């Protein structure tokens, strides 16, 4: 799962927000024949806990995943309940997606500090529960599926590790809007391809993404973390040592193990206002200063709205991250 630190609220002034919302709306308001208008679903979906028969044209959809609400909204459904990951966004929906609520106010059915509140989920009277980007346990699944058909994280990925493409397609199938899901995925994939083509220096370069977990304690994100996938989708590769560090989402490393972070590019994620603390810790860590990637100026700290859009990693957030982050990375690899 992406870093669980609660973010401080900032103004989110996105110059391209209108274009993003127009893109999402265009993919969310199709007419007859485009797989969009009340398309019948009733599909049988398979997840970590088995198979689920979803209802046809569900109307009361609850998002218990950490970011599932973005895909649900992009596909034209307003959820009646959402999980509040960060605790600092109105209605637990980021600015790049908030207009798609169309004035609705979903119930908050859980937070990062409290987890899913099954009673609050029940209070929304759901007919479908979605939690594809999650770490839902068997016990939670049993309780949720007693309320309504429930689709959780796919078994083939680590918890909190479903790629945004798979997430969008799964939710699209659950909502009976697979055609729209494919349109959304194709649009973002085209943008990734365009940015990668404009930055050929990214191809084949090794990348490690890390974060500060506490005083003198660092960590490295695994290959299935969305922040790592953001870079690999742009042509970067995971160094083999990453597989040795972790096969899950995130693994702590000791100060001595920082030598493992000597890749072509070292990215520090410092969302939630942790940038200053991270800088202080790195400045006080001599072994870090000796890394070749640091000496060569190929380490960067990402801590602003673009970093959060990258971390959120949905069809609605990624276009903004793609506009903002690659221009910061490219000069580093030119050195």
TrEMBL record:
Main localization is: other
Family annotation (InterPro entries): ABC_transptr_periplasmic_BD, Bact_iron-sidero_bind, TAT_signal
Q: Which domain of life is it from?
A: Bacteria
Q: Where in the cell is it found?
A: Cell envelope
Outline the extent of the Fe/B12 periplasmic-binding domain.
60-333
Cleaved signal peptide residues? 1-22
Pfam families noted in UniProt = Peripla_BP_2
Q: Which UniProt keywords apply?
A: Signal, Transport
- What family does the Swiss-Prot or TrEMBL record give for this protein? Belongs to the bacterial solute-binding protein 8 family.
The name this protein carries in UniProt is Iron-siderophore ABC transporter substrate-binding protein
Task: Name its species.
Answer: Rhodococcus kronopolitis
């Amino acid at each position: 799962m992406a870093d669980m630190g609660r973010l401080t609220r900032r103004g989110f002034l996105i110059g391209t927000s209108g274009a993003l919302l127009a893109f999402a709306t265009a993919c969310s308001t199709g007419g007859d024949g485009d797989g969009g208008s009340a398309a019948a679903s009733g599909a049988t979906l398979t997840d970590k806990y088995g198979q689920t028969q979803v209802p046809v044209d569900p109307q009361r959809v609850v998002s218990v995943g950490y970011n599932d609400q973005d895909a649900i909204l992009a596909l034209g459904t307003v959820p009646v309940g959402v999980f509040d990951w960060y605790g600092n966004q109105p209605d637990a929906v980021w600015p790049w997606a908030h207009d798609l609520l169309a004035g609705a106010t979903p119930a908050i059915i859980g937070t990062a500090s409290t987890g899913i509140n099954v009673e609050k989920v029940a209070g929304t009277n759901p007919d479908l529960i979605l939690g594809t980007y999650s770490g839902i346990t068997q016990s939670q699944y049993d309780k949720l599926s007693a309320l309504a058909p429930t689709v959780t994280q796919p078994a083939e990925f680590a918890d909190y590790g479903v790629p945004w493409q798979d997430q969008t397609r799964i939710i699209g199938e659950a909502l009976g809007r697979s055609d729209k899901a494919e349109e959304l995925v194709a649009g973002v994939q085209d943008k990734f391809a365009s940015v990668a083509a404009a930055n050929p220096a990214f191809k084949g370069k090794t990348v490690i993404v890390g974060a500060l977990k506490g005083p003198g304690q660092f960590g490295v994100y695994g290959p299935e973390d969305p922040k790592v996938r953001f870079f690999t989708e742009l042509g970067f590769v995971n160094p083999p040592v990453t597989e040795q560090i972790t096969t899950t989402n995130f693994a702590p490393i000791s100060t001595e193990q920082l030598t493992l972070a000597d890749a072509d590019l070292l990215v520090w994620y410092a969302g939630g206002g942790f940038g200053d603390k991270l800088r202080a810790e790195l400045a006080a860590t001599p072994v870090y200063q000796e890394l070749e990637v640091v000496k060569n100026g190929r380490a960067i700290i990402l801590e602003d709205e673009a970093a959060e859009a990258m971390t959120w990693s949905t069809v609605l957030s990624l276009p903004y991250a793609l506009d903002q982050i690659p221009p910061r990375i490219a000069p580093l690899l030119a050195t």
